[in-house]
User: Fold these one by one.
Assistant:
Number 1:
Amino acid sequence: MERVKTTVSVIKADIGSVAGHVVVHPDTIAAATRVLAEAKAKGVIADFYVTNAGDDLELIMTHRKGADSPEVHEVAWTAFQEAAKVSRELGLYAAGQDLLSEAFSGNVRGLGPSVAEMEFVERPSEPIAVFMADKTEPGAFNLPMFRVFADPFNTAGLVIDPKLHTGFKFEVYDVFEGRSVVLNAPDEMYDILALIGTPARFIVRRVYRRIDGEIAAAVSVERLSLIAGRYVGKDDPVAVVRVQAGFPAMGEVLEAFAFPHLVAGWMRGSHHGPLMPVPQRYAKCTRFDGPPRLVGLGFQVKNSRLIGPVDLFDDPAFDETRRTAQLVADYMRRHGPFMPHRLGPEEMEYTTLPEVLEKLKERFTKVEGAPRAAEPRIKTELLSRESKEGD
Ligand SMILES: [Mg+2]
């Protein structure tokens, strides 16, 4: 007999917030909670926890219907619609922002919300970590995911635990082409890094344990601007990671966030800044709409029920990380509108900057005798979007 599988689905959307892009309103959380409670009573989902990371409404759900279940996605979609209704009534800022479509068609992917889902047979004790970021993009998880599952200087278990010692498989997703590649760590770690070092394009989507193919992590890969073709909001990502007993320990997973690395997002989704791990009460991006925040909640999953949460970064051990993040925030802010604080031109394409530049186009005049820039010597399909026809 096939063993019962539990699915953890974390689905989020920004459906409007109070006083700008700061925090969700409790009434929108209540509206979403009502929808999920009803779905639980009907047996569509087994359990749920509704929360927020800054201005993002987060639905953490468990059920037995597998990833991409139309029923579960419809519950999430209805919850966001109901919350957006409240958001509009209250005149919240950017009400319904991430809901790009009016009609639900069986799956929330492509409609605006971000999704991280994984299905597994529960271990006798099944601890998980759910990560929710605000004011950044899915590629923000690339560096920490690599460190958790491929860097022995971060994860001691890679060296000393036989189940981890054979390494992990990384599914890397290309957001521009909608395709993915599976690469093995440690053997192909340089290839993995060659891709995921470009986090705006290549995103670690899933991680599997090599010894038996068990799923270890899932990250949302939705990028709103690529779906909508214009800047809508930053694609604040979510991730689920299984921890302990054959997976990295909770402390090894959290250790990867002790370095507040630079990510894209922050003000107008157009700036690089440090990713600051915070207790949930501090997931309130106020300084220049940032710096980008990360909230982590720990749960036990038992018979598809959620036990918890534990607020994982509510620990003075991360005070120095936060202090470093503040110093980095100061340093980056002093660049004002200059790169690398402001994002590069490929990323700015989806913002309102092109409209500003369009005005100047006619005013440029040719400079006689000026050398023309040479064609780039190396063009690869993987690195240059321009090299692709019809792009
Ligand atoms: Mg947000």
Number 2:
Amino acid sequence: MTIKKWNARLSLLTILLLLIHEGYQLFAYITFYYNPTLSKVSGYAVAGCFVLHAILSVIGVAVLHDAKGVAYKRLNIRTVLQRVSAVLLILLLPLHIFSFPMLKSSAGSFGYVMVEAVQIIFYATLFCHVALSFSNALVTLGWLSDIKKKRVIDVIDLIICVIMLIAVSVIITTTHAKMFGQG
Ligand code: HEM
Ligand code: HEM
């Protein structure tokens, strides 16, 4: 259970850093205030936790089966989606990190639309993984045991994730379109 608990703490820290990275990027895109250092520090801080969390998750799930005694643990559709989204995140992360130069070099071509589409798929996958996982971390840490409360938290979490997905997709793609003279 120890690795699982450390992984749950780390995953909550990752969510916090993600909110900072996302908040900073949205601020930068809305105000056109761009600070490369803040962008890199916030982005690579999330990336560091992301890699550690991915390693601990693989060890916990595949190697140690370190989940005995956790009430929510059953291989249901949620767990399958959680794992599929995890694999997709790893595959799409490089494209996210290098999306800006790729958009710049492909402006005006079909490749530009593809890069934006894959970016939105990356954001959707990320919010899907977080919406499916957040309350599980609270259960793992022993902060949540009531199944009804867990369902309420899941619904609130899902609503927040859907709103953030729409906000992020609209703000970032429309600002890119202005920057690169699209549409
Ligand atoms: C919904 C969530 C996210 C949003 C809205 C977001 C937004 C952005 C944007 C707009 C950029 C481009 C900055 C630019 O060059 O103009 C960026 C860069 C970056 N992002 Fe994210 N990101 C998200 C999730 C993540 C995740 C999960 C990671 C890491 C695991 C990450 C790591 C990075 C890194 C390393 C960069 C490059 C920073 C740079 O070179 O300045 N992002 N992000
Ligand atoms: C910024 C990106 C990510 C965030 C915010 C995040 C967040 C979370 C959270 C909160 C949990 C619940 C922890 C628990 O059940 O105690 C979780 C579980 C999980 N995550 Fe992530 N995650 C991210 C990326 C990834 C990646 C890249 C992988 C790739 C391996 C991954 C694989 C998993 C797996 C397999 C679980 C289930 C672990 C278990 O049941 O023990 N996650 N994630």
